[in-house]
Amino acid sequence: MLEKIKSTNDAAQIDKILALSIEALNSVHRRDCYLSEAFARNILITDDKAVFIDFETDPGQVHAPVDCMVRDWYCFTFSLYGKLYKSPTQYERLTPALVEGLKNAKQDVRERFCETLPKLLHLRRIPFKFFGSDGRKLSVTLQSLAALNQRL
């Protein structure tokens, strides 16, 4: 997914890739299932379909199903903001796509996501941007989640 999204500056194509991925995630959740690691690197995209790979762990061993689904959304979100923040066209398309996707998510998943988001945003006080590339990705993601929070 990341390669496809990074390889184009065409907003319509970026929107299509994001929409396919987000709809696939919501489809998994509508079947009351969740993923192992819903990172963008684990999503394969064809012209009309998104497929998830990498099912090594089961977060359901420690979390309730709805929390696993919310975790999917956070993994997905982090992996996209963390990898696309240096790609302006892709980055600007991301928040609107995520807002739309979360509005179409299962109600209990959306509600739990919105309930946990303000708590997570307290982490913005930590200066992650000074902790190397992963820290910068966390910092960017937290800033982006704050913007997402305002739109939900």
How many structural domains are formed by the residues?
A: 1
Q: Architecture, CATH level 2? A: Orthogonal Bundle
CATH topological fold name: Transferase(Phosphotransferase), domain 1
Order of helices and strands: HHEEHHHH
Q: Which structural class fits the helix and strand makeup?
A: mainly alpha
Shape: globular
Largest β sheet strand count, sense and barrel closure:
2 strands, antiparallel
Overview in brief:
The protein has helices at 2-6, 11-30, 65-84, 88-103, 107-120, 132-151; strands at 43-45, 50-52. It has 152 residues and is mainly alpha-helical. It has a single domain, classed as Orthogonal Bundle (Transferase(Phosphotransferase), domain 1).
Kindly describe this structure.
The protein is built from 6 helices and 2 strands. The protein has helices spanning 2-6, 11-30, 65-84, 88-103, 107-120, 132-151; strands at 43-45, 50-52. The protein has 152 residues and is mainly α. The radius of gyration is 15 Å and the shape is globular. Helix 3 (65-84) packs antiparallel against helix 4. It has a single domain, classed as Transferase(Phosphotransferase), domain 1 (Orthogonal Bundle). Strand 1 and strand 2 (50-52) form a beta hairpin. The mean pLDDT is 94.
List keywords for this structure.
single chain, 152 residues, two-stranded antiparallel sheet, 6 helices, mainly alpha, Transferase(Phosphotransferase), domain 1
